[in-house]
Amino acid sequence: MKNAISWFNIAVSDFDRAQKFYETALGTTLEVVKKPDESMGMFPADFENGVGGAISLRKGCEPGPGGTTVYLNVTGKLDAVLERVPAAGGSIIMPRTAIPPHGFIAIIGDTEGNSVGLYSPE
């Protein structure tokens, strides 16, 4: 096992709104996969060596605070991401916070009501 986490799903209730939020806030493009019973927007990932994940719209998977917190890797870009979050429709729940000696984290609220962590070692 290379990583403690291998995959994550962030539940959403409005796929297009959530896709726009994450692409705008993180400055990236999600790979969209639509199936009859699920829509997924996959975050860029090196599946051979890292963790993958997606936003997911599917029956029985509801967004909201108090659930699992995933930490997205924003190495070297934490401040830039935090600056874009409000303009993308989200909120800053916990600003940039040092976690010595490991780096920095922050927690944002997305457009779907989820709390999502951000992590950067620098």
List the helices and strands and how they pair.
Elements: E1 7-11, H1 15-26, E2 31-35, E3 38-42, E4 52-58, E5 71-73, H2 78-84, E6 91-98, E7 104-109, E8 115-120
Parallel strand pairs: 1-4, 5-8
Antiparallel strand pairs: 2-3, 3-4, 6-7, 7-8
Kindly describe this structure.
This protein has 122 residues and is of the alpha/beta class. It has a single domain, classed as 2,3-Dihydroxybiphenyl 1,2-Dioxygenase, domain 1 (Roll), CATH 3.10.180. It is built from two helices and eight strands, in the order βαββββαβββ. The strands form two sheets. The protein has a four-stranded mixed sheet, with helices on one face. Strands 5-8-7-6 form a four-stranded mixed sheet, covered by helices on one side. The radius of gyration is 14 Å and the shape is globular.
The outline comes out as: globular
The H/E string reads EHEEEEHEEE
Sheet of most strands: 4 strands, mixed
Question: What strand order characterises the main sheet?
Answer: 1-4-3-2
The first-to-last residue Cα distance is: 25 Å
- Kindly estimate the percentage of residues that lie in beta strands according to DSSP: 35-45%
How many independent structural domains? 1
CATH architecture: Roll
User: How many beta-strand elements?
Assistant: 8
Tell me the CATH topology: 2,3-Dihydroxybiphenyl 1,2-Dioxygenase, domain 1
Helix count from the secondary structure assignment = 2
